[in-house]
Write a structure and sequence with these properties.
280 residues; alpha+beta; 5-stranded antiparallel beta sheet; 3-stranded antiparallel beta sheet; 12 strands; elongated
Amino acid sequence: MNKNVALFILLSVAFGLGAVYLANNWLDKNQPKDLQAGQAMVVVVNAPLLTGSIIEAKHLSLNKVPESAVPENSYNKIEDVVGMVVNQKLYPGDIVRSERVNKKGEGSSLASLISSNMRAVSIRVNDVVGVSGFILPGNKVDILTTFNKNDNVYTEVVLSNIKILAVDQKASNDENKPTIVRAVTLEVNIEQAETLMNSQRKGGLQLALRNPNDEAIVSTSTSSSPTPALSESSNDAHSSILPETNDSAFQIAKKRFDGRNKVEIIRGIEKETVQVSNNP
């Protein structure tokens, strides 16, 4: 037998035995021993995992905790978690719970990150629309549209507190630095998707980045509740300026803003405000 062949065989055997030893050593370190009464095992993360990451066995270990401290929907077997997709960032020591992971769907991991009854919709952005590249997967934004109507420029908030699923083709925020992107993918329900598409055709879109702890409700152009429509027999001194229409979807409401009278005209998702003189 050629010496080189023999050496190659010996090296292969040595590497194989080394791999087996390392694997057994890793399993031994990550397997808790001497489980006592009143204790239970839970699967925990031993390395930081970003949103969109696919979990591997090397990311996990088993820890002993008191049975009373075991959270609901946790796992006690590593093999039950391997292959799942992280839907929110996990840190070393975090107990893996079903709310924090999704089963990997067919195709890309993005589909696994979409919440129930929600949709992923992408829109084109540039350095301005995309907040100079500071938007990352997992961020929340408000969406505004600017359009021209009757030689006037209007800006409206069309959607609020919308989650960013991905930027370009990245669903994980592994880089915490500004990156200019060409598209962002948003998580919306089907009604919000319709509003977004209509607003995109109506005018330009702008994203407004929110603080992650800000859950304040922002009034949008499609969520404002109009006040009762004025009747044709109204005795209001300014009703004569209102346009005549037989459209039943055409709602007219009078409001007072900053001490001035205005008439708000709403047709579907379009809204127009007309200044009314205070003089009869």
